[in-house]
Every structure is written in structure tokens, then in C-alpha cells.
Write a structure and sequence with these properties.
This protein has 167 residues and is mostly beta strands. The protein is 13% helix and 60% strand. The longest helix has 21 residues.
Length: 167
């Protein structure tokens, strides 16, 4: 009899765990973000702005000049969020880059890329992102395909939601 009560207690306990977990409210850490300022490799400085919860724009750039050597890039991105979970967001990116000087060790004009990205929200105002895809590189020798990977860290300013009237 004791063994049956023990097994019944375990079954009821296992049944009750999912019920208690469902009652805990979830918090989407990427909700209400606006402007994000940060670092985005390979074009060092980044400004990311989410116009809506699912559509954003990003501008990246840097220039370095030492003596006769100048290198840098300016990049623009269009971001379309595909999935939004509490901690991870998944999105697609269309990116266009203009290369300045001897960018990445050789002369080139620029590139366009189509990438997939994921953003890990550490806090409501802090996120780390990884993007990967394929780029078409335009240079003096013509067009070539190359992998496109970037890693970033953004500090976001978060909108304060308007309080809803009590009913």
C-alpha cells in the first residue's frame, strides 16, 4: 500500500510541475526596443533602430587612416524579424557595404549580402547578435561569392509602454 501511495505521489507531482510552470508570466526581453548603439564586426560602430517590433534598420561604419594607408567600410542593413521568443530573436538581413581603401587586404568596391541572424537578449537593454550568410563581393576582378559572418553587441534604449486604463 505504501509503495502504491508513493508512486501515486510521484505521478501527481510530475503532473503538477507543468501546471505551476505555465502560471509564471513570461517576459519578452526584446519588447519595446528602439535605438541600439554598439559594436558590429566587421564595420566597428553600429546604430540599430527597430521601427516596429518586426522591422529594423542598421547603419555601421568606421574609417582608419595611418600615413598613406586608409581602410574602412560603411554598411546599411534592413532587418526583418521572423521569430520572437523571450530570450532569442531570429531575423533575416539584406546588407549593402561600401569599402573604403584597402579593405580586408585587397581592393574592392563593396558587397551585398543576404544573411540570417539571431539575437540573444541578456537584459531588456543589452543583446548579442550573430549573423551569417552569403555575400557577393564586387572588385576590380569582377564579382565573387564569399561567406558573410558578423558578430555584434548592442545597448538598446527601451520604450516605456503607455499605461492602460483600468476597467
Amino acid at each position: 500500500m505504501t509503495k502504491k501511495l508513493f508512486i501515486l505521489g510521484i505521478i501527481m507531482g510530475l503532473w503538477a510541475i507543468p501546471i505551476t510552470a505555465q502560471e509564471r508570466p513570461s517576459k519578452d526581453l526584446s519588447q519595446d526596443r528602439t535605438l541600439g548603439i554598439g559594436l558590429q564586426a566587421p564595420c566597428a560602430f553600429s546604430f540599430r533602430y527597430w521601427l516596429t517590433e518586426g522591422f529594423g534598420l542598421e547603419l555601421n561604419g568606421f574609417v582608419i587612416s595611418i600615413g598613406n594607408f586608409t581602410s574602412g567600410c560603411v554598411a546599411g542593413k534592413v532587418l526583418l524579424r521572423l521569430a520572437d521568443t523571450d530570450v532569442f530573436d531570429f531575423y533575416t538581413i539584406f546588407e549593402a557595404n561600401i569599402h573604403i581603401g584597402e579593405y580586408w587586404g585587397g581592393p574592392s568596391v563593396g558587397d551585398i549580402a543576404l544573411k540570417a541572424g539571431m539575437e540573444l537578449s541578456v537584459l531588456p537593454s543589452l543583446a548579442i547578435n550573430l549573423e551569417f550568410g552569403e555575400a557577393l563581393l564586387f572588385g576590380p576582378g569582377g564579382v565573387s561569392a564569399t561567406p558573410a559572418v558578423s558578430l555584434g553587441l548592442h545597448y538598446y534604449f527601451v520604450r516605456t509602454p503607455q499605461p492602460q486604463p483600468a476597467e
